[in-house]
Write a structure and sequence with these properties.
Helices cover about 25% and strands about 25% of the residues. The chain is α+β, with helices and mostly antiparallel strands. The structure holds iron/sulfur cluster. Iron/sulfur cluster binds near residues 19, 20, 292 and 326.
């Protein structure tokens, strides 16, 4: 089987993407967080016009799945204040912000100013994005982005082109203009076939002015568990049950929901550790599993995926698993150690690959699949 086509654009609120279970409508949290009352409204929209499932994406966005009435969702997002004024501004506001703020909220302040300069940016490819990661040690070094605003090794600020080991040292008042200047350099020098900064740097040297200062070390990876005055929750399978999230928000009395890459969100309220829908410690085996909505949410699936994932989780022994309702593989594009692909009510097993790759074994019942996982070396 061949890899399903990877699109050169990202779904947004204005421009949803069709998936096997309906439209996907992506909401980009402004400055990396959404007030809890607006998240409640988003959950209500998902329950009314979607299938009640919200995805937390790798770029820390929230997306509604299974949407049937796109216009009703757009109207609802507008009423909640979660919709950009135009599709163009939504596409340009491709900014991921450090999830854990320092005492001065430097990343949030910079991202806020960057948003006011979006109109000054040149035309950029749809997936071109900014990473604002300037609250001490870098939290977003693994997050995809093209222009990075980070802490320098000497504790100042740098603007760095992704793919370069060095960045431009800047002051807080210079940082946004420097990021815009780097975006303009990309726009003026890039071959139209290349859409990201790192591959561009493979053939085009970065001017010396953009590459003088080293970045700070990375912070330890954020994992589910307690933080200072907050709690980080993991999202098994990257998929949030809207009803469960409403309950969590109500019980925790959180004021805001902050979004992090790697399927983690942070609430500033009381820690709630007894809800099965959320991972509250780093050793929850479900954090190594990707699973699409499967049956009955998606008409293309002949198997349930999330229930199967719960059953298979104890058999993984640290391996990553992608369990996909069909060979399309909506939940995850990258390779995993084990892939279980639904077909005609049973599972095909792929090793070290993708749902669309040639399976090692076909037609396994769920209990047989669990046995096979135990036998894998
Ligand atoms: S991968 Fe899952 S969500 Fe996507 S079409 Fe197949 S069954 Fe549906």
């Amino acid at each position: 089987m061949s890899d399903p086509q990877v699109k050169g654009w990202c779904p947004g609120a204005y421009r949803p993407m069709m998936s096997g279970d309906g439209l996907i409508v992506r909401v980009r949290p402004r400055l990396g967080s959404i007030p809890a009352d607006k998240v409640q409204g988003l959950c209500d929209l998902s329950l009314t016009h979607g299938n009640g499932i919200l995805d937390l994406t790798n770029r820390a966005n929230l997306q509604m799945r299974g949407v049937r009435d796109h216009q009703a969702v757009l109207d609802g997002l507008w009423d909640l204040g979660l919709l950009d004024p135009t599709p163009e501004l939504e596409q340009r506001r491709n900014i991921i912000v450090a999830p854990v703020c320092g005492p001065h909220h430097v990343s949030i302040a910079i991202a806020d100013r960057l948003i006011t300069k979006l109109n000054a940016l040149p035309d950029l490819p749809a997936k071109f994005g900014f990473v604002v990661d300037a609250d001490g040690p870098r939290q977003l070094s693994a997050a995809s982005g093209d222009i990075r605003i980070e802490t320098s090794v000497s504790g100042g600020l740098i603007v760095r082109a992704d793919g370069s080991d060095l960045g431009q040292a800047v002051t807080e008042s210079e940082v946004v203009n420097a990021a815009v200047a780097l975006a303009r350099w990309f726009n003026e020098t890039v071959n139209p076939d290349i859409r990201r900064m790192a591959p561009h740097l493979e053939t085009t040297p970065l001017p010396h002015c953009f590459a003088r200062e080293t970045f700070a070390p990375s912070a330890p990876a954020l994992t589910p568990g307690p933080l200072t005055n907050a709690f980080a929750y993991g999202v098994p399978f990257g998929s949030i049950d809207a009803l469960a999230l409403k309950t969590l928000l109500t019980r925790s009395k959180a004021g805001h929901m902050r979004f992090a890459p790697n399927r983690i969100f942070i609430l500033d309220g009381a820690a709630i550790t007894d809800m099965q829908a959320f991972a509250t410690s780093a050793d929850d085996p479900r954090l190594n599993i990707h699973a699409c909505p499967g049956a009955p949410a998606c008409a293309s699936a002949s198997v349930t995926t999330r229930d199967a994932a719960d059953i298979l989780a104890p058999h993984l022994k640290g391996r990553s698993l992608h369990i996909s309702g069909c060979a399309k593989g909506c939940a995850h594009r990258a390779s995993t150690d084990v892939v279980a692909v639904g077909r005609d009510g049973a599972f095909d097993l792929v090793r070290n690959g993708h749902p669309w790759d040639e399976p090692l074994q076909r037609g396994l019942a769920l209990d047989r699949l669990a046995d096979e996982l135990e036998l894998l070396t």
